[in-house]
Amino acid sequence: MRISTNTIYQSGTNQLMNLQSDLNKLSIQTATGKRVNSPADDPVAAARILELNTAKDQNANYMNARKTAETLLQTYEANLTSVTDTVQSIQSTLIAAGNGSYTDTERAKLANELQGNLDTLKGLANTKDSQGNYLYAGYASTTVPFDANYDFVANSSRTKLQIDVQSQLPVTFTGDQVFGTNGDNVFNTLQDMITLLKTPITDSTTQAAFSSGLGDSITKMQGSLNKVLDARSEIGSNLNLLDTLNTTGDSLDLQYDASISTLQDLDYAQALSDISKKTTILQAAQKAFVATSNISLFSLI
C-alpha cells in the first residue's frame, strides 16, 4: 500500500501536537498543583470534585450559622445571668419585708430598693445586642420591648437558624417569654409590691392585706425566676448541641478536604517524570519529523 507524503506529514504533525498538548497540560498541572484543572482533564473526577466542593461550602455555611447562634446565645446567657441575680436579690428583699418588727419607714426603704431593682430589670429587658437590635423584641428588633407602662409591645416570634441539614435552632428569646405577659409580668409584680410596701400598716386589716400581698408576690417572683431559669436551661442545652454539631462539622470538613485532595492533587514526582519523558519523546519526534519532511520522491529514486 502506498502512503502519500501528505499523509506522512499530517501524521507527524498530529503526533507533535499531541505531545505538545500533553506537555502543556503537565505544565499547567505543576503550576497549579492540581491534577484536574478542567472537566476535560478527568470528567468523572471533575464531577465528583464539584459535588464535594458544594457539600464543603454548605458545611461551611452551617458552621457560620452555628457561630452566629453561639454568639447570640452567649449574649442572652450573659444578660439572663444578670436578670437572675436581680430577681434573686428581689426575692431576698421580699423575704426581709416579712419581718414583723419592721416599721413603715423601714418597709418604705425596701420599696426604694425594689424600685431600683425594677429599673434594673427593665433596662435588662430593653437591652440591645452588638448590632443595635433589641434582644427581646422578636422580629420587631427595632422596637423597644417594654414601654413606660411595662407592657410588652414588641413581637413574640423567635428567630431560628439552620444549623445543619436537618435542624433549625431558636436563637432568640422574647420579652413575654422571659419576663411574662402584659398584666402578669415581673414588672407588674414589682410595682404591686412597691405600692404595698409604701402603704402604712395601721390595723389588722392593712396587716392582713400586706401579708397576703407579700405572699402572692413571693410566689409570683418565684414563677418569674423559673421562666428565666428555663430560658437559661434551654441556652445551655442548645450550646451543648452546637458543640456536638461543630465537632461533626469539623470532621466532615476534613473528610471533604481529604477526598478532594485524593481526586485533585497532583503527584509532583510523577508529573516531573512525565514531563522529562514526554520532552525526550517530543524532541526525538521533532527530529524524526524534520528528517521525514526532507525526504522527497527524488531522493528515493
TrEMBL record:
Predominant place of localization: other
One CC-aspect GO term: extracellular region
Alphabetical list of SUPFAM superfamilies matching this protein: Phase 1 flagellin
InterPro entries, A to Z: Flagell_FlgL, Flagellin, Flagellin_N
One BP term from GO: bacterial-type flagellum-dependent cell motility
Protein keywords: Bacterial flagellum, Cell projection, Cilium, Flagellum
This protein's record includes keyword tRNA processing: no
Domain Flagellin N-terminal residues, every copy: 3-139
Subcellular location: Bacterial flagellum; Secreted
GO molecular function: structural molecule activity
Family under the similarity heading: Belongs to the bacterial flagellin family.
Family matches, as NCBIfam families: flagell_flgL
Name this polypeptide is given: Flagellar hook-associated protein 3
Designated gene of the protein: flgL
